[in-house]
Design a protein that fits this description.
Layout: E1 42-45, H1 58-70, H2 74-78, H3 86-90, E2 98-109, E3 112-123, E4 127-131, H4 145-154, E5 161-166, E6 169-172
Length: about 180
């Protein structure tokens, strides 16, 4: 799904499924910040109750991106990326995804968050991805939040979606800004 470290192309087709072909880059590219291993992690889980497109929470940003993509409004979808990534996103041409995706919850540390996504989505050229385990890709065992964030940031997995808070607003972080 992501391959986010390579740039906006990595996340732009629900949570931009067709992006694995964009390649992976370093999570430290652009203005991406990561908390230290000792960062505290606050978890919010549960269904998508109270989630609506917007920038108030990481879940809202991921939901806004998903809904805009599924509605075929790629210009609106681009507005859910970190501001420094939006111009690049608007220049992309990609196939529209089809499917059903839900925001299941989030794990956050400071100004970074991993948004849990479940569902299925398909795009022409990149096939389909399915995730039924909302906790897939979240920190577990001895893995730190930073390690899980970096892994999600660089992976082609469906979930979780890395997000970043910029000037008090949450955005999907594609790693180019």
């Amino acid at each position: 799904m992501h391959g986010r470290g390579s740039g906006v192309c990595a996340t732009a087709a629900v949570l931009m499924v067709g992006l694995a072909g964009c390649g992976a880059g370093a999570a430290s590219s652009g203005g991406t910040a990561s908390p230290g291993a000792s960062a505290s992690v606050a978890a919010t889980t549960g269904g998508a109750a109270g989630v609506a497109p917007g920038h108030a929470t990481p879940q809202d940003a991921a939901d806004g991106l998903i809904q805009a993509e599924l509605a075929g409004n790629l210009q609106l979808a681009c507005s859910y990326f970190v501001p420094a990534q939006q111009a690049t996103c608007r220049g992309l041409h990609m196939s529209l995804p089809k499917g059903h995706v839900s925001v299941a919850g989030t794990v956050a540390s400071g100004d970074l968050a991993l948004v849990e996504i479940t569902g299925h989505v398909c795009t022409s050229g990149s096939g389909c991805q399915i995730n039924t385990d909302a906790s897939l890709g979240l920190p577990h065992g001895s893995e730190t939040f930073k390690q899980a964030y970096d892994k999600a940031f660089n992976s082609g997995e469906f979930s979780p979606v890395p997000c970043m808070k910029v000037n008090g607003q949450w955005y999907v972080n594609d790693g180019t800004g």
